[in-house]
Every structure is written in structure tokens, then in C-alpha cells.
Amino acid sequence: MAIFRLPPIAEIDGSASGWGFFLCAQKDLRPTKNGGSYLSLMLQDATGEIAAKVFDGAESLNTQFNKGDFVKVQARGNVFKQQVELVLENIRRVNPAKDAADGFREEDCIPSSPRPIAEMWQELLNRIAEVQRPELRALLERVIATYGDRLRIWPAAMTVHHAYRGGLLEHLLKIMEVGTLLADAYHVNRDIIIAGAVLHDIGKTEELTYEGATGYSIAGNLVGHIAIGFGMLRDAIRQDPSFPDDLRLALEHIVLSHHGARENGSPVLPLTVEELIFATVDDLDA
Questions:
Q1: CA-based torsion, 200, 225, 118, 109: positive or negative
Q2: pTM higher than 0.90 for the full model?
Q3: Is 47 in a helix, a strand, or coil?
Q4: pLDDT above 70 coverage of the chain, percent
Q5: Residue ranges of domains in the chain
Q6: In 3-state terms, what secondary structure has residue 221?
Q7: Spatial separation of the C-alpha atoms in residues 129 and 137, rounded to whole Å
Q8: Would you state the CATH architecture of domain 117-285?
Q9: Other residues' Cβ atoms within 10 Å of the Cβ of residue 133
Q10: What does each C-alpha distance from 247 to 140, 161, 264 come to in angstroms?
Q11: Residue 75 pairs with which residues in a beta bridge?
Q12: Among 165, 164, 162, which Cα is nearest to 152's?
């Protein structure tokens, strides 16, 4: 490998040259005009992402790693159509035990929330403990017990907002923070705001795939997170046969209407004060 280490992606320019560690977020073997093939990649680190190409030995190198792998590359910067990219001379899958000696750390290759996940998770637990209605608090506890592994780390989106590790958790906590302030100011049900924050995007844990790089699942493409989340909510409520109908309807309404308008993907419009507050705060933080 080259002597010098590449700078972080945010600092790479056309003159850069060296080796570095990245996450392979996208990978395609494409034909060239002369009948050969090249690898088209999207590489990622904690500071951003950059397009990369492999021209020499593309078919052979294609077998050495997969999308979602951490990789070590030898590369040089290039400017193509006014965009900085990397042209790779070599690429291989990271060997964590071996490459740690050269400074490989997973966290340097994955965009993440600026807040520690453990800190955010404890804040979530504290917020749920504030919920006054015991049946609602129990529902939220069941939901985070079932989907907690994903809620801790899932991004909130592919690109639009909070598109990084822990982004979904960060997003729902901000909704709780701002939404409960407004609920208290207007003397409306803060329990619904807290529950809505947990539940409104729960479908994204099934809509999105996430292995360092984010993608859409088949269900995500075909159905979308609002419909998926509505089904997940109903499944959770069914576990409590005595769950109140009025509360079920309020929660279903907040999941279905949180985008605020039909043209934004919501099948119904927000019709309660709590949901008007919720949809507004969700839009502000998106």
C-alpha cells in the first residue's frame, strides 16, 4: 500500500493519494465502452461519502469484497464532471485484527449521531417512564423491548434527515423534547406526544435496511413505513386485549397522519390538537 494515508472524505481533493479505510456503501460491476468492465463504488466514512472506480482488474477485485464490507483501498483523487472521486489501484476487505495496527476503527467509517447512543437510550427510557397512563406506558415498553436493537442504531432516512447511525433515536427524542413543551403550553395530552414519537416512525425499522450502509427493504419499497408502522402498532396493541379503543384510535391516527398532508404521504390529515402539534414538530425536525 502507499506510504501516506488518505485524509477523511470531506477533505479529499483531486490531488489526494494514499491508502485508507472506508465502508463500501454501494458496489456495481459495469461494462465499459470497449467491452471490458469496471467497478463503480460509493465509499463512506464518518465525514461523508465519495464515488470511486476500479478500472484495472475490476472482475478479479469484484470477488474480494461485498457491499456493506469495511475495505482498505489504495487510491488517488480525480475530478470527473466537476466532482471529486477516487480511482482505486487496489481494494480488499478489512481484516479487523490485522488492520487495527494501521488504525482501523469501525466508528471512523460510519456516519453517526453526535450524541452517544447509550445516553440517548437512557433519555428514551426516562421519557417513557413519564407516561401517566399505565396501559400506554406498558405498550411503549413492549415496543422498545421488541424493536430496541434497531431503534438504538437505525438511521431515520436514506438521505433526507438524520441519515446516520442513531439518527432515528435522535429524531424521536427531539420530537419528545419540543412536542412536550408545546403540549404543556397548550394544556393537551403529553402522553400522546411521547407515544407518537416512539411509534410514528417505527415502520422505518422494517422499511430501511442498515448494515453500516442504508438501503430500502422490499417491503419498504412496496408498502412504505407508514403502512408498515400501522401494522406493527396493531400487532403490539393486540397483546393487551383490554387496551382502550379511544387510545388505540389516537395512536393509529398519529401514525397515519404524521406527515401532515396527503401529498406528503399521509393517508389522513391531522385532526386533533395533539396531532397538529406532532405533525408540525416532526416536519420541523425532518
A1: negative
A2: no
A3: coil
A4: 99
A5: 9-108, 117-285
A6: helix
A7: 7
A8: Orthogonal Bundle (1.10)
A9: 14
A10: 13, 29, 25
A11: 18, 88
A12: 165
- CA–CA distance, 238 with 243 (Å, rounded to integer): 8
Residue 92: CB atoms within 10 A of its CB come to 15
Question: Which set of grid coordinates corresponds to residue 6?
Answer: 488518505
- Is residue 2 over pLDDT 50? no
Query: Would you tell me how many other CB atoms lie within 10 Å of the CB of residue 15?
Result: 10
CA angle 160, 164, 167 (to 5 degrees): 85
pLDDT for 175 beyond 50: yes
Confidence of residue 1 (pLDDT cuts 50, 70, 90): very low
The DSSP bridge pattern shows strands 83-93 and 48-54 to be parallel
Count helices and strands (H / E) in the chain.
Answer: 11, 7
Q: Which amino acid is at 126?
A: N
The values of phi and psi at residue 168, to 5°, are: -65, -45
- What's the pLDDT at 171? 96
Give the residue-averaged pLDDT of 128-145. Answer: 97
pLDDT band at 103 (very low <50, low <70, confident <90, very high): very high
Query: Which residues, 6+ apart, have CB-to-CB distance to 166 below 8 Å?
Result: 112, 113, 115, 117, 120, 152, 153, 155
> What CATH number is given for 9-108 in this structure?
2.40.50.140
Element (H, E) at 89: strand 83-93
Residue 29 CB coordination number (10 Å): 13
Which of 41, 87, 98 lies closest to 213 in space, CA to CA? 41
Confidence band for 248, pLDDT divided at 50, 70 and 90: very high
Q: CA nearest 200: which of 173, 225, 174?
A: 225
- Distance, in Å, from the CA atom of 42 to the CA atom of 265, rounded to the nearest integer, reads 29
Give the containing element (helix H, strand E) for 99.
helix 96-99
